[in-house]
Amino acid sequence: MENLENLETIEDRYQKIKKIGEGTYGKVFQAKDLKTDQIVALKKVKNDYEEIGDEGIPSTALREISCLKALDHPNVVKLVDVVYIMKKNKLYLVFEYIDYDLKAYQKKIGKIPEQTVKSYMHQILKGIEHCHSRRIFHRDLKPQNILVNNKGDIKIADFGLGKIFGIPLNTITHEVETLWYRAPEILLGDKLYSLPVDVWSIGCIFAELIIGHPLFHGDSEIDQIFKIFQFFGTPKSSKLEGTYNLKYWSNLFPRFKSQKDEILKPIIETDPQAADLLVKLIDIEPAKRISVSQALKHPYFDNIQSPLNSQIFNF
Predict the structure, then answer these.
(1) Which of 12, 101, 140, 158 is catalytic?
(2) What contacts 176, CB < 8 A, 6 or more positions away?
(3) Which end of the chain is more exposed for a tag (fewer CB within 10 A), N or C?
(4) Hey, which CATH number is domain 100-301, 1.10.510.10, 3.30.70.980, 3.30.70.1020, 3.30.530.20?
(5) What's the pTM?
């Protein structure tokens, strides 16, 4: 890590305006760059000494920096700068400032129009397609990590759990809300999961944008997997195509019958193509899930509109 500026404090360069978020890995502020007058998002990285990497920097920050430096796409948030205050051992990541995350935006406006959902989904898939083509998968996709600006542009953010293929890493955050978007193979203990985990999360986000609430909202890991089984029906065995070893599988799991048709009926009646894409994104068997590239070619996107044509923004 290189300290490009000899700053005594972060306030020598950035004027904090307000706190806009706080997560597992640090606080995020809206701030003004005193050198350029640009409004930015300033992420103060938490010093968790259990997560310190070889360079004395938290491993989550190192992963995020490594991933973002390898990515350059309109639908991935831009890392503007990395500032290390050597005297105080403080690390800050500086990002382009985006108005809302999807969770906050949906809470603000209520039901999102169908064409806007379509535009958002197309952009999310394009951003993740770029990530996957660069051998990176996100592993923590959820509405809070999908940003949207006042032009309707989507930016994928928070790569603290991002992983570059070939680097062994088993850590998964245990925040309850993250559970709602976590693929069943992770919940069941498969250590060799891969790109389909992002596809599952995108499917869960898609469902939430349509119905207005999480599709699977368990309050623990076991409750989450049971919610998934209630939707699909409990699999007959642990031999799910695309998995290796489901460490937490039990033959004593309750035998739920599928409620999928009943739950999806309103979506099927309103937009059959949306329902078809959704079930392809959240297939319980990872090997059968559609890829992001295949999803982008789905007929659901045949009549896509630009975001400004699909929704009036008044942030």
Answers:
(1) 140
(2) 219, 220
(3) C
(4) 1.10.510.10
(5) 0.89
